[in-house]
Every structure is written in C-alpha cells, then in structure tokens.
Design goal:
There is one protein chain. The protein is globular. By secondary structure, it is mostly helical. Helix content is about 60%, strand content about 10%. It is built from eight helices and three strands; from the N terminus they run H-H-H-E-E-E-H-H-H-H-H. Helix 2 runs antiparallel to helix 3, helix 2 packs parallel to helix 5 and helix 5 crosses helix 7. It has a three-stranded mixed beta sheet.
C-alpha cells in the first residue's frame, strides 16, 4: 500500500522529531540496559525488604501498621528510569531522585538544563559544543553508576537530594563506572568505524 503524500510527510516529520529529541538524551541506551540489570536487583531488594517489614508488623502499633502496609504496597510497583533537565540545579548538581507514583516508581536522573542548552542548538537541533556534550555524557554515566551500584540506598531514599547524599567510596565507584562505560562506548564506536561491513548498519 502506498501512503498519500500528506501522510508520508507526516510520518517523516514524526521520525525527524524523534531523532531531534534523541539528541538531548546522552546514553539513553545505557539507561535501558540499567533497567534490565535492575529487574533482578530490585526483585532481590523487594524480597529482603518485605521480610523486614513483615517482622516489623508483628510488633507494630495500629498507626505504624498502616505505614508498613503502604511500604509493602509500594514494593509491588514497577520502576522506570527517566532523564530530565532542570533549570534550578547547579552544574555539579546532577543526581538520581526516587519519585513514588500511584502506579510505578520513577528513578529520575536530573541534569542541569544549562549544559543541555550549551550542547544542543535549539534551532538546528544539532550538537554545537563538544565539551558540553562530554559533560552531559559523563554526568549521565555517573548517575547510572549510582543506580546500578547503590540500588538499595536509592530505593530507601526520599526527597530531592537523592544520590547527592552518596559520598565516599560509593562516589568514587560511580566515577570509575562512568569512565569505564564511556571508554567502552568509545571503543565500540572505533571498531564500527574500522569495519566496512558495519558502517552502513550504524
């Protein structure tokens, strides 16, 4: 079946819109990979946490029991990783925050919008500042490291600080994770460019 010209134009414009928006989300592929890894880790965390809460319930007051039941219900919700850009956080303020909703739990990677504005031209929708792009990728990779390495701490946290409160050895581990992830991505891209059979595939 051949589409009408107007429909074809609409479809192509939609594809361009998706492509343009995708330029804003560095390492989105890695966010999906982290989601997959966390399915197992989150299930293990839930088993452990349910056991703890059921023990607490045995000696809890009526008021405390209601809170415990709410926490048990929350453990039933699926989670999703999102990337969001905010105007009101400083350049070094990237973090993961946990946002419980009625039907799911969001892990939101909050990044400074100022760096996005420096990285992607709002008119052409194309990259314009290599250093800003590197900064976004580094911050995204770092917070993905916290999601993978500090799962339990994140799922127990509330409020807007999120992983901003993670310091010391865990912070150093997230830095190592970020550098390793970005180095592996660079290595993969170099291998693709060197292989004529793969250039067209990517």
């Amino acid at each position: 079946m051949i589409l009408q010209p107007e429909k074809t134009k609409f479809v192509k414009n939609k594809a361009k819109e998706v492509n343009d928006i995708s330029l804003q989300y560095q390492l989105a592929h890695a966010a999906f990979a982290c989601n997959r890894l966390l399915e197992h880790d989150f299930n293990e965390y839930c088993k452990k946490r349910r056991s703890e809460l059921k023990e607490e319930a045995k000696t809890a007051s009526k008021e405390s029991l209601q809170t415990i039941n709410e926490k048990l219900d929350e453990l039933q919700k699926p989670y999703q990783i999102y990337i969001d850009y905010l105007n009101d956080i400083p350049e070094d303020g990237a973090r993961v925050v946990r946002i419980p909703l009625s039907n799911r739990t969001q892990l939101v990677i909050n990044l400074p919008k100022r760096i996005l504005n420096e990285a992607v031209d709002p008119v052409t929708k194309w990259y314009k500042n290599p250093e800003a792009i590197k900064s976004l990728r580094k911050k995204t990779a770092h917070e993905l490291g916290h999601i993978v390495l500090n799962t339990e701490e994140i799922f127990k946290s509330y409020g807007t600080q999120g992983t901003k409160d993670i310091i010391g050895e865990d912070e150093e581990a997230a830095k190592i994770f970020a550098k390793t992830l970005l180095d592996l991505r660079k290595e993969r891209n170099e291998k693709i460019r060197e292989d004529p059979n793969l250039i067209d595939a990517f």
